[in-house]
Amino acid sequence: MIKLEKVTKIYPDGTEAVKEVSFKVEKGELCVLLGPSGCGKTTTMKMINRLIPITSGKIYVDGMDITKVDGNELRRNMGYAIQEIGLFPHMTVGKNIETVPALKGWPKAERKRRTDELLELVRMTPEEFKVKYPSELSGGQRQRVGLARALGSDPPILLMDEPFGAIDPITRAELQNEFLRIQQEIKKTIIFVTHDIYEAIKMGDKIALMKEGRLVQYGSPADLIYRPKDKFVEDFVGVDRALKGLQLIRVKEVMTASPPTIKTDEKLIAAEERMKHEGIDWLVVVDDDGKFLGWLSLSDLGKGERVSEAMRPSSVTATANTVLNEALSLMLSSGLITLAVVDRDNRPEGVLSFDDIRRGLSEVSQGESR
Amino acid sequence: MRRWSVLIALLVALLGLTVWITSMDKVGIYSVATWETLANETMNHLEMVFIAVLIAISIGVPLGILITRPGFKKSALPVIGTAAVGQSIPSLAIIAIMLPLLGLGLRSAIVALVIYALLPVLRNSYAGIRKIDPAIIEAARGMGMNRTQIARKIELPLARPVIMAGIRICTVITVGTAELAVLVGGKGLGAITFKGVFAMEPLLILQGAAPTALLAIALGFMLERIESWMTPRGLKVEAEIA
After folding, report:
1. Chain A contact for B152, CB < 8 A?
2. Per-residue b or e along A336-367, where b marks 16 or more CB atoms closer than 10 Å to that residue's CB
């Protein structure tokens, strides 16, 4: 989809901003350009839509050399999102989003329909927000509009330059999650520039780590964390790489599925039998509908006759899509050694133990695919 | 609200002063200008200001925008510098120097007024474009707008309030400076004022000066309303919040 071949940028004053960078991004992939400031990541991105001319090398989009088409035409077919300050302050949200469709000469009705659709996609009520001005929005809302605007004419490719850079950490995490959800729906090919390693690991299918204009390593987040090419990559990922690796795994990949359950009105003697039979020292307690209520452990068995008398109620649960670092954090803060994994109806789907987490980590670090 | 009452009080006072002096028959041994003379000179004054400002706008706005364009950026400093020299010379001197250069007449007066009025228009047109956040221009380029589209849809609307402010300042200055036009054979309220100056009679001076101030304040206020009306709503909201 996007291919860079020995792309080099030398400015007239002799500064080599980008040196012989080559990589390839497949259709539907999100590729993060990562590196410290001044490493050439933004320059690299801007050469893809020719905001900055290439000195030497080639860039192909869908097999076509980008220098063979008109620059403005090329840019109209690539979504472009930058920090929230890039919105046009004198235009309403609606007009901002319509920019590229208007440049492409879409009929008015079609533009309106698309604007509404995009505002819904980024979870903003069209009637309310269409008529507002950027200065009337919060930073997070502006960023959503920026994303909607970039998607204006439904381009197959999106270029995003630190789109969540100027936002507070809580809103940023929210927007990242939402963006990942949207990306699941729209499956664009995305070039995403950031200097934040956490953001890169969270968002990227691929990461291109750059330093002083050169591409140091290109691969999946797991490659970067567990198979760093050199000292620079190792240092950039940081000493807590094992913890960062937890972000790469979801609970469903390592949990123990279909855990043994017991209902509240059953007898403790039956519970003891079940534990012996399964060779474990706990059971998941559910109600008559099979919904999660809490835990029953071996040491509680002497506290009465029925499960309801001896069980320990709990409301701390994870879902199958929770990432491991969040699940682990839940376990550490609640003091649970096993965490219940429930579905949307609060029915237990599985359980997660420290052993499961350890096993998952070692699998990823040994290079098995995610 | 307070601003309004001060403004109205000022206008009423100036108008009252003008009416009071004009309705006198004589001040000392000198006769005051008639109502007819006052009306004629006011029209002459306005005409001169109008022509001079129009010329200043038609030179200053395009030139101010031109020197923000790539390729002309290097000429920005010399151009603005030259215009600044025009304004740093005392207005009386500029008017006086026209006499040997262009002779006596309305033409000399207008050229002098334009030289004096050019700087605010030029400088504001230049600054209006230059102060636009480069990120906005880059976003526009990144979305595939060509140069003309960026100028028409982004730069001009965003710079418009600043350019309008320049035109307002230029107009107010010119109303005042035009008093001097009479010295090089021009007309206007200066004719009444200078009669008072030569007679050393304060009331006669005020008969020309008060309506001039009235004109400057009223025109300035009108242009401010137009300026506000021409400001895109998104920018107004921004100003209110800031």
Report:
1. no
2. bebbbbbeeebebbbbbbeebbeebbeebbee
